[in-house]
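testing teh design pipeline on a random one, pls ignore if ur not involved
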C-alpha cells in the first residue's frame, strides 16, 4: 500500500465518530472489515474474487480506487506493507505518529517477567500478553491478570522458542472490543 493511501485513511478517522463494538460481537473477519469500512464511512464496493470470496474495494470521495481489503492480503498489500503490519511494534509506532490512540504497550525480553508484571499492573487490572515474533493470533493471551501473569509470560516465551523464533513478549493494556485479524476466513 502506498503510504499516501494509509495517510488518507488515517486522516478520515479523526473526522468520524469512534467505533464501539459490544463484547459479544462475533462475525467473520471479512464481515468485521466490511462493518469497519461502513462505520468509518469510506465509500466502498463489495466484490467477489474468482473463488467467490468477498473483498472490499475502497474508494476516495472522488470515486477513484483507494485500496482493496482481502482477508489474505491487506489493502493492496505488497510484501513491505505486510512486513510492517506483522511487526506489532512498527504498526503501533505508525498509528501513534498519525494520532491514533493505541493501547499502553511495552516489549520485554525473557528475563524481564517480574519487571513486566510490576509495570503492567501498576495501571491496568488486565493485560494482553503477545508473542513478538508470531502472527495471526498465535501466542496472544487475553484477559491476563496479575495472579497468572508470570506463568503466561513464560508460556509465551516457550512457544516462540519451540518455533525457533527470538523470544520477546509484548504486554499491552486490555482493551475491550473486536479485533480484525489478517489471515484465514
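output:
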Amino acid at each position: 500500500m502506498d503510504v499516501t493511501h494509509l495517510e488518507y485513511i488515517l486522516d478520515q478517522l479523526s473526522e468520524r465518530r469512534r467505533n464501539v463494538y459490544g463484547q459479544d460481537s462475533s462475525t467473520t473477519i471479512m464481515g468485521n472489515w466490511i462493518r469497519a469500512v461502513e462505520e468509518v464511512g469510506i465509500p466502498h464496493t463489495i466484490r467477489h474474487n474468482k473463488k467467490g470470496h468477498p473483498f472490499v474495494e475502497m474508494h476516495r470521495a472522488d470515486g477513484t480506487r483507494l485500496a482493496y481489503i482481502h482477508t489474505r492480503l491487506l489493502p493492496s498489500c505488497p510484501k513491505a506493507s505486510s512486513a510492517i503490519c506483522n511487526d506489532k511494534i512498527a504498526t503501533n509506532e505508525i498509528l501513534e505518529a498519525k494520532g491514533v490512540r493505541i493501547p499502553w504497550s511495552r516489549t520485554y525480553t525473557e528475563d524481564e517477567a517480574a519487571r513486566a508484571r510490576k509495570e503492567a499492573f501498576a495501571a491496568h487490572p488486565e493485560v494482553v500478553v503477545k508473542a513478538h515474533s508470531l502472527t495471526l493470533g498465535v501466542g496472544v493471551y487475553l484477559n491476563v491478570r496479575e495472579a497468572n501473569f508470570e506463568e503466561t509470560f513464560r508460556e509465551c516465551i516457550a512457544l516462540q522458542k519451540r518455533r525457533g523464533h527470538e523470544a520477546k513478549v509484548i504486554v499491552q493494556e486490555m482493551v475491550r472490543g473486536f479485533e480484525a485479524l489478517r489471515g484465514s476466513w
